[in-house]
Amino acid sequence: MRRTIPSATGNSVMPTYWQAFAPLVLFTFVASVTPGPNNMMLASSGLTHGFRKTIPHMLGVALGFVVMVVLLGLGLGSLFEHAPWFYVALKYASAAYLLWLAWKIAMSSSTPDANGRGQPITFLQAVGFQWVNPKAWVMAVGIIAAYVPKEGFFFNLAIAGLICGLVNFPSVALWAGFGAGMRRWLHRPLLLKSFNYTMALLLVASLYPLAFETASH
């Protein structure tokens, strides 16, 4: 027997969970695989530390985003409605933190970490980073508002969180793999430094939506 999900109006049904959540799969993939703070950092980490040492970072990104989606869906977003100053403070703290990360990437080692030196971002640091990542906030709010069926909301929220994790992890892993794959080509200090500068600039550029939102107010 196929399971169905009532529509918001209650007058029709969606035949399967897959049909209900297929748009979410597409949205999560596109949003996860396109450039953003997480992906710039993962590419740089893959280059500097290698793919294997970047796995905790990748897992932290995927799980951290799932936790964000679920907690926002459970009502954390109402905090911003009652305390808008907290949202503003978080927004500027996020921008400052991302600028600091961009500087760290630009100033990172001039040679790939082939001998195991250096400290890549840990699992818990990657989980926590999602809460200061503007792109993650936009994705999470958009998913809850547009892609989680309201009928049976909490169960659907759990399904949506699972989908986000399953789609997000391989998407961000592509960027870590890209960085790791570049190790053989960027062994020269000047080329490596140019790559890190590019990643840092793209990380700063990812703040554009935040700056646009501020200007519009």
TrEMBL record:
Just give the chief location class: membrane
Kindly list the residue ranges recorded as spanning the membrane.
20-37, 58-79, 85-103, 123-147, 153-178, 190-211
Q: Which keywords appear in this protein's UniProt record, sorted alphabetically?
A: Cell membrane, Membrane, Transmembrane, Transmembrane helix
Q: Where in the cell is it found?
A: Cell membrane
**Highest rank taxon of the organism:** Bacteria
Under InterPro entries, the record lists: LeuE-type
Q: How does it sit in the membrane?
A: Multi-pass membrane protein
Q: What is this protein called?
A: Lysine transporter LysE
Per the UniProt record, the source organism is Gluconobacter thailandicus NBRC 3257
